[in-house]
Amino acid sequence: MSSVSTIARPSVGAAAEKIGAIFLRDARLAVSYPMSFWLGWVSIAGQVLAFYFMSKLIGPSRSFGFGGRPGSYFDYVIVNLAFVEFQTVAISSFQRAIRSDQMLGTLEAVLATPTSLPLIVLSSGLWAFTLTAVEVAVYLGIATLLGLNLAHTDLRTAAIFLLLTVACMSPVGVLSAASIMTFKQLGPTNWVANGLAMLLGGVLFPVSKLPVALQYVSWMLPITHALNGIRGAVNGATLVQLAPDALWLAGCAALLLPVSLLAFSHAVRRAKMDGTLGHY
Amino acid sequence: MTAVPAIAFNAVSKSFPRVYGLTAWLKHHGRVPRRQALEDVSLTIAHRTLYGLLGPNGAGKTTTLKLMATLSLPDRGSITIDGVDVGRQPEEVKRRIGLCTSEERSFYFRLTARENLEFFGALAGLRSCHRANRIAEVIDIVDLTDAIDQRFSAYSSGMRVRLALARALLADPDILLLDEPTRGVDPVHADAIRCLMRDEFVGRHGKTIVLTTNVLDEAWAVCDEVAIINAGRIVANGPPAELQRRIGGRVRYAISFDRLHPQLADHVRSVEGVFAVSVDATAQTLSVELLAGSRTLTHVLQAVTSNGVTVYGIRPLGDALLELFRTTEDAR
To answer: Chain B residue with minimal CA distance to A117?
Structure first.
């Protein structure tokens, strides 16, 4: 038998080991489905090619540029679509992780360990975020070969907007996970968020082309500010120039993150009261 | 100063909704009817004890274990593990326990046993520098060393239960909560697990074990104390030998006659060693509960035949376990 000293007391190091273990579990599970894993990469290349040929039908326009300069539709849509991937993964990864643990029957075993709820739920998205970051890099790499211009990108601003977008969208994902904990089924959150992004967030066409009333609705969506920020960063804008969008996202994240973690904690407590932790 | 018990339940009650889901919730205007799973359960388990929770399916054994493991919360009452309140400090409680569930699906099917234990070991707080050695130790204890790199999906039911036991041992906790750890396990390994619990974990390492089982012989053979739980209530508890003396020495028979004399039941009740008599007039039968292994049955038969009735038949009622539950239920 081993001694009790082999058990780490709660600390940053112990938490890091747990985060690493959750990441490794998800990576191992993902590569255990090789067909699905590799088909994901093929679909990335296909998507870039499809928009490359589509953009040949649409000429350069100021609507696609930044700061009054004209830009190409290919650059506009590729950057937007790459960035929307982070919204998709932020919203879907937590709920999928919880749903997967429910379906596999491992949720109770995980929750029986001395690991805090925020760590379990937030770490469960880490593999998906890492994979998405690599996929987006490949996506942009292929697009660069086909003419995407990233030469003026302000990397620091782009990184800050990436973090703000993830911090702002993840609480929506955690709220969805709380809903799954209660209702035991995937909700429409991902579908609604992606639909709104495509229609009102300026992913496929500029927000300025929308009727004025819808432009107000668009302004309310985090994805609009996220895309505005990243397009600005790609065109060399500094964080100061993009401050309104950055502050909007930061405020949204600061408000939603604690609310979502509280909601998740409440959902787990409710499941423990009703005895439905192991239900699926 | 009174020693802090390993586990203490103080008037714990627990209920579950009878129906689930949003539709049911709306239908009942937010007041979904609930089913009582545990009713006013109080128990104290001392350290270094192998404590058995014995009862039929649905009695409330797993519910009791899940309450100890913080996977469920009580409606009323309080639970402490090693003096720590389960509701207030669940993380601290989880550091003190190891849970072996009876759920076959509590591992990742597409990962190997080693990968599963690496994951759960990290979450249990096992330091990375010790993890590989500890996994090798616990996998050896449950005799799965040769299968450690097999995917969990390839494991048989018995192997899965043994792997769950290995997981419970990973962090070397002082308190082990074992939900039917020999269910589906072959007789050789089941016997080895019983020896491990009795001699190694409790005897040598001074751990406290709570074991749920519906196998009477298992509880009798390995436990220091047994609580018989039925319909959410502890109907009897104590050391097996004491329980055997208190309630195990009774048997029931159904005795049928050609006719039922009006005073027959009273005559039988007056026989020494008879505890209870009930009358089934339709079947012309008396159910008689009496002291086992004595001449009481002979005396009962003498009493009824002296009243001029003819005995048509005698049959024992129920199997040993069912009879024990029934007896304890009546004795409350």
So the answer is: B91
Non-local (6+) Cβ contacts of A195 within 8 A are none
Distance CA B37, CA B59 (A): 8
- What per-residue confidence (pLDDT) applies to B248? 60
- Does residue A184 surpass a pLDDT of 80? no
Answer yes or no: are the C-beta atoms of A94 and A176 closer than 8 Å.
Answer: yes
* Tokens found for residue A71: 């830009």
Q: Roughly how many angstroms between the first and final C-alpha of chain B, as a whole number?
A: 32
Residue B284, token pair as written in the block: 């012309």
Question: Within 10 A of B54 (CB to CB), how many other CB atoms are there?
Answer: 28
Q: B106 and chain A: CB distance < 8 Å anywhere?
A: yes
Name which of B14, B162, B37 is nearest B101 in CA terms. Answer: B162
Short-list B101, B87, B223, CA closest to B167? B101
- Cα A261 to Cα A252: distance, rounded to the nearest angstrom: 14
Identify residue A116 by its one-letter amino acid code: S
The average pLDDT across A55-81 equals: 83
Give Cα separations from A223 to A171, A234, B249, B311 (angstroms).
14, 16, 75, 88
Euclidean distance between CA atoms B332 and B328, whole angstroms = 6
- Quick check: B125 and A8 CB within 8 A? yes
By residue count, chain B amounts to: 332
What integer best gives the mean pLDDT of chain B?
A: 88
**In contact, B290 and B275? CB cutoff 8 Å:** yes
Nearest CA in chain A to B99: A112
At position B75, the amino acid (one-letter code) is D
Q: Given an 8 Å threshold on Cβ–Cβ distance, is A1 in contact with B110?
A: no
pTM reported for the whole predicted model: 0.82
Q: Low-confidence residues of chain B, pLDDT below 50?
A: 318-320, 331-332
